[in-house]
Write a structure and sequence with these properties.
The chain is an alpha+beta fold. It has one domain. Helix content is 23%, strand content 28%. The protein has a three-stranded antiparallel sheet, with helices on one face. It starts with 12 loop residues before the first strand and ends in a 6-residue tail after the last strand. The model has no long low-confidence stretch (mean pLDDT 86).
């Protein structure tokens, strides 16, 4: 049976909220789960999101903002 457009098979992506240096926030940024885990944990998500931001900035003509912090969606803070 075909999959409905816009559906996310469980576990394919992890979602992150990103807070930038100007305190703006972007929610639910998708990062492939295959990049995450291991000894680095969620740190590879930062590089992946930075690359996405560079591509977006290039297309829009706006400067790239520095990332202040990233937080995985759905994970409780310690």
């Amino acid at each position: 049976m075909p999959k409905k457009p816009g559906t996310n098979p469980k576990g394919e992506f992890a979602f992150f909220n990103v807070v930038y240096e100007d305190d703006s926030q972007r929610s639910n940024r998708r990062v492939p789960t295959e990049l995450l885990g291991g000894l680095d944990g969620d740190e590879p998500a930062r590089g992946y999101i930075m690359e996405q931001d560079r591509e977006i900035a290039e297309k829009s003509g706006k400067p790239v903002l520095e990332i202040k912090r990233i937080e995985r969606v759905g994970v409780k803070k310690k």
